């Protein structure tokens, strides 16, 4: 019986963490995950949700304002980059997309894909923010 509760809570936490990745801002880390887990799975869900929330909360922190401003003002390349995949926060850009480092902050790079400016984490190519 307890193992079914743990499995159910872990599944719920995993599914809810996907929702958090799709948002442009994060949940409140472990605290937000614990509350969500407690609602779904009781005390066991709170523990599992806290762990999932901590992972999600630290995975996608919004970039500093100066990085966003830089990407908004950066000149667009002459060649237009179009990919079939939807650009999603938390997912890596395809390898065919060239990312450009941000000189003032090497923790971030950017690309312009499908006419959208995106800020990415350089080593993983994971999308951190889509700028509209």
What does this structure look like?
- InterPro entries: DUF1236.
- Keywords: Signal.
- Residues 1-22 form the signal peptide.
- By secondary structure, the chain is α+β, with helices and mostly antiparallel strands.
- The protein folds into 2 domains: 2-59, no CATH class; 65-131, no CATH class.
- Helix content is 46%, strand content 14%.
- The protein is built from 3 helices and 4 strands, in the order αααββββ.
- The protein has a 4-stranded antiparallel β-sheet with strand order 1-2-3-4, covered by helices on one side.
- The radius of gyration is 18 Å and the shape is globular.
- The model is unreliable at 12-28 (pLDDT under 50).
Question: Top keywords for this entry?
Answer:
132 residues; alpha+beta; 2 domains; 4-stranded antiparallel sheet; 3 helices; globular
Please describe the biggest sheet, giving its number of strands, its sense, and whether it closes into a barrel: 4 strands, antiparallel
The outline comes out as globular
The arrangement of helices and strands along the chain is HHHEEEE
In DSSP terms (H or I, runs of 4 or more residues), the helix count works out at 3
Tell how many strands the DSSP assignment holds.
4
Write the layout of secondary structure elements.
Layout: H1 2-22, H2 29-59, H3 65-73, E1 100-101, E2 109-113, E3 116-121, E4 126-131
Antiparallel strand pairs: 1-2, 2-3, 3-4
Helix pairs in contact: 1-2
């Amino acid at each position: 019986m307890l193992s079914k509760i743990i499995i159910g809570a872990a599944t719920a936490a995993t599914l809810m963490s996907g929702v958090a990745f799709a948002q442009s801002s994060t949940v409140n880390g472990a605290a937000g995950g614990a509350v969500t887990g407690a609602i779904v799975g009781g005390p066991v869900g709170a523990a599992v949700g806290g762990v999932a929330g901590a992972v999600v909360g630290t995975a996608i922190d919004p970039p500093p304002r100066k990085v966003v401003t830089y990407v908004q003002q950066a000149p667009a390349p002459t060649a237009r980059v179009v990919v079939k995949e939807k650009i999603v926060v938390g997912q890596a850009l395809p390898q065919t997309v060239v990312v450009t480092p941000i000189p003032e902050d090497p923790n971030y790079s950017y690309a312009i894909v499908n006419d959208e400016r995106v800020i990415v984490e350089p080593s993983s190519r994971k999308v951190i923010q889509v700028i509209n």
